[in-house]
Write a structure and sequence with these properties.
alpha+beta; 9-stranded antiparallel β-sheet; elongated; disordered N terminus
Length: 564
């Protein structure tokens, strides 16, 4: 017999055991990855230090200069000596049905924004997520203004005037407008207006320049987000999680810009795009007018403060004329359908990573079942059933192969006793047995490998989708994004895994067999702290697998006995 054939026969059974063992090791590693990601997403977070409704402090060492681009042309740096920088600056409080925000009259910046429909936790429903904040520890604000002649171009250090300090969207009203005004010494009047609509997380910005001076006005509108790096103390060394900048342009598409890279990132000129700071579940993004070219930029300031934004090309307003500059600020949850309608590519901030091509159809399927049941838990259950149906033939081939190998276990054991320590003869006899019975030692593993990317994609859908955040299911499961409070699902998952092992052929290596006996216990421990939505998927998937495997095993074992 050729040497290659002998070696192949010799390693066949060992390969089957090794592949199976590698799969289980992968599952353990995957479980560890899930645990680490859960710590990032759902573990303890730093407490917000800004009091709701209180005055927010803008760090003077952050806004004292260099926090807008100093690029080509006549764009100049800003400094703390701008008019009004040291003057008192009251806050303007604004409330709609979905957000509560505060505008600082110094700069006209959005220095606080709370998402009223998104509590920080189920235990504190009256404490909304504080997305934008002006305190030093959690500094994250939206700024805007003009770059040009200091005397006639207001920026985010300028003191603006407001008619009122409290605005609220009244019952029956659809739109709320908050105007701020500034007049230069030479007669240029600028009106900055924020426009909020009912049920909308998009905030419109209009900046109207009325030139009543004796000369032409020249300037560029800029919009930027300034944020302090929240640090990486809650990040895992091996699991990706992203808090940082993103720039989207028609030419370069979706590009992440980490805080550490913002000092070196080059400006990008585009007619269509946006600049954002994103985090898990939520984002803030400036979206310039799509028909005008803008430069998208980033900048690193002192003390771990960073800037990302866009500025327009130079614009001239002749004496006696006026021009209105527009942009949108989106600050809210990563609702994919809302993001798709807001700006091209904005839905990509829901970060499914390299498995986006598989994750998007899975999310669409979840949406369809949610429309039927109005419950994300049942949507997960029926998506799991659908995926099992799609992979039915692959799973069937895998289970038939495992059932066939299980059926051959007595004959394989007899061959081991017959040939003892003669490994060469044993492996040759094994290969002959496989050929006679048309069994494939690797047949039970390869179909499972094909399905793994889909399962991982579903994991990211469950983790990244804000719609799943704090979503109730049934009975005690009132939050699919947090752990099962009574550990019922993890225990059921562990039991189901135990029965799955009983239906599968045991490894021929006694050591591997002993190690695998502990896998149900290990995974029960891991899954005890996972989001219950993910554990729900795993439980349903295991139960369906057990049913399918049990039926196929009975069919195979009830067939004609293996040849002697």
């Amino acid at each position: 017999m050729p040497v290659v054939s002998i070696l192949s026969q010799k390693n066949s059974e060992k390969s089957m055991d090794n592949v199976r063992f590698i799969l289980f090791v992968f599952l353990v590693f995957f479980g560890i990855m899930l645990w680490q990601q859960w710590q990032v997403d759902y573990g303890p977070k730093p407490q917000q230090t800004a009091a709701n409704g209180g005055d927010l402090v803008v760090p003077t060492d952050v806004t004292t200069g260099g926090d807008v681009p100093a690029s080509a042309g006549n764009v100049t740096e800003l400094s703390a000596t701008k008019a009004g920088a040291s003057a008192p600056h009251p806050l303007i409080r604004v409330m709609t049905d979905v957000v509560r925000l505060e505008l600082d009259t110094r700069g006209g910046d959005v220095v606080s924004l709370e998402l009223l429909n998104y509590p920080t936790s189920k235990d504190h429903p009256d404490q909304p997520v504080h997305l934008l904040a002006g305190d030093r520890e959690n500094y994250f604000v939206a700024q805007s203004g003009f770059l040009g002649d200091d005397r006639s171009s207001p920026n985010h250090h300028t003191l603006w005037q407001a008619a009122n300090t409290d605005y609220q969207l009244a019952e029956g009203e659809k739109t709320l407008r908050i105007p701020l005004t500034w007049v230069s010494p030479d007669g240029v009047r600028v009106t900055k207006t924020y426009i909020l609509n009912r049920g909308d997380y998009r905030i419109g910005l209009e900046q109207k320049v009325e030139n009543h001076s004796a000369a032409s006005w020249k300037g560029r509108q800029y919009m930027q987000l300034q944020r302090k790096d929240p640090g990486d103390k809650n990040k895992s060394a091996t699991i990706r999680t992203y808090t940082g900048g993103v720039i989207y342009t028609a030419e370069d598409n979706y590009q992440k810009v980490e805080f550490k890279d913002m000092a070196d990132n080059k400006d990008r000129l585009s007619r269509q795009g946006w600049a954002a700071m994103i985090q898990h579940y939520f984002l803030a993004a400036w979206i310039p007018h799509a028909d005008e070219e803008h430069n998208f930029y980033t900048k690193a300031l002192a003390d771990q403060y960073y800037v990302i934004g866009a500025y327009s090309l130079p614009t001239e307003v002749a004496r006696g004329e006026e021009k209105t500059f527009t942009a949108d600020l989106f600050a809210g949850p990563k609702l994919q359908r809302v993001l798709e309608q807001t700006a091209p590519g904005l839905e990509l901030t829901v970060d499914y990573g390299s498995l986006t091509i598989a994750a998007k159809p899975i999310f669409w399927l979840l949406e369809q079942f949610h429309k039927l049941f109005d419950n994300w838990g049942w949507a997960i259950v029926f998506v799991t059933i659908t995926l099992k149906a799609l992979f039915f033939k692959l799973s069937e081939a895998s289970y038939r192969s495992m059932a066939g190998m299980r059926k051959l276990q007595p004959k394989m054991q007899a061959l081991k006793e017959k040939y003892g320590n003669d490994k060469q003869k044993l492996n040759m006899a094994m290969m002959e047995l496989y050929r006679e019975e048309k069994a494939n030692p690797l047949g039970g593993c390869l179909p499972i490998l094909v399905q793994i990317p889909v399962f991982i994609a579903l994991y990211w859908v469950l983790i990244e989708t804000v719609e799943m955040r704090q979503a109730p299911f049934i009975f005690w499961l009132n939050d699919l994004s947090s752990q099962d409070p009574y550990f019922v699902l993890p225990v059921v998952m562990g039991i189901s895994m135990y029965f799955q092992q009983k239906l599968s052929p045991p490894p021929s290596d006694p050591m591997q067999a002993k190690v695998m006996q502990f896998f149900p216990v290990i995974f029960t421990g891991f899954f005890a702290f996972f989001p219950s939505g993910l554990v729900l998927y795993w439980v349903v998937n295991n139960l369906l697998s057990i049913l399918q495997q049990w039926v196929i095993t009975r069919q195979v074992e009830g067939a004609a006995p293996a040849k002697a």
